[in-house]
Structure formats: structure tokens, C-alpha cells
Amino acid sequence: GHEAVLSCPNVSKVSLLLVTWKRSGGSFCPLSYRRDHNETTSLNCSERITWKYSPASEPALRIYPVNLGDEGNYTCEIANSEGNFFLFSSLTVIVPPTVTLTQDKSRVAVCQASAGKPRADISWIPASNHSSEEEFHHPNGTVTRVSYFGWTNSSFPSVTCLVTHPATNQS
User: Fold this and answer.
1) Which of 37, 66, 69, 151 is most solvent-facing, going by the fewest CB within 10 Å?
2) Is the pTM above the cut of 0.70?
3) SS in 3 state form for the chain?
4) Does CATH number 2.60.40.10 belong to domain 4-91?
5) Class of domain 98-164
6) What is the pLDDT along the chain (171 residues), one digit of tens a residue?
């Protein structure tokens, strides 16, 4: 859902002839700019994939909003009078999980971190040996983790579920 900007190598703009962005594997539209004709070309590109700035001055690729299908390895090729220059960029997409905390009738607390990428970590405060976890892998690469905290025979008045994930800095 955020913006990704991939930059090209900093070469002399005076001698710039051609800039092309490609992605290895998967479906991606090649995006190119030819300076001598001041012409940009994009094949089957959506509005999400464009130049961040003017390709003549700064040929950075902009993807907005980013989705999981955009993950992969990208190549920027610049041709100028000195030769061809390649820059390889790897885009990794992370997705924050949706967190829910519920309690069932038998006093089992259920903490669920849904559809995160990578998977979220779940812990309990206070720490206990009375918890168990399940993990579900979804076709789109996200993971749902569920942790159960049994506190039927516990003297704790309450428990706290702690979910940590690289996409968010909050607990």
C-alpha cells in the first residue's frame, strides 16, 4: 500500500541515450525512455507503475501503491555514449498483520495475527507454559499465526498478548 522508488545509477545525463526498467520473471511492463526522441514507452503498464520524476533528469521507477505481486528483482539499464550500465534492485514487500484478541467460554485467550508477511511473533505476558500456537500459510505468501493461552487454572487476573512484526513498531 505504500510507495516504492527504485533508482538508476548516476551517470552523465548529457550523453544519456536510453533508459529501460525490466523485472525478471513474473508479469511486469517494460518501461523505457529514449532521449533523442524525448519518447517514453510502456507496454501494458498500469497507472501504479510510472516514472517517479522526469526520466530525462532522474530515471527512477515508482510503484504506488505496492502490492505483493510487485515483489521481485528489477533491472535498470542505461545506455549512453560510454556504454551500457546496469543496476539491479530487489524489492521485498512486507505486510503488517491484523491482530485480534478474544476469549472463549473456557477462559482460553486467543491471539491472532492474520495475513502478515513475514509471519508475526506472538508472546504472552506473563509468560506461560500453557500456550500453544498454530500457523496457516496463505497462497499469496502471507501467514496467519494463532496463539492460545489457557488460563482456566491460573491465578492471573488478566493476560497480555504481545505481537511483534517488522512492518510495525507498535506492540
Assistant:
1) 37
2) yes
3) CCCEEECCCCCCCCCEEEEEEEECCCCCCCEEEEHHHCEEEECCCCCCEEECCCCCCCCCEEECCCCHHHCEEEEEEEEECCEEEEEEEEECCCECCEEEEEECCCCEEEEEEEEEECCCEEEEECCCCCEEEEEEECCCCCEEEEEEEECCCCCCCCCEEEEEECCECCC
4) yes
5) mainly beta
6) 889 999 987 666 567 788 889 888 766 778 888 888 888 888 777 788 888 988 877 889 999 999 898 899 999 998 888 888 889 999 999 999 999 999 877 778 899 999 999 999 999 888 877 788 999 999 999 999 999 988 766 677 778 899 999 988 766
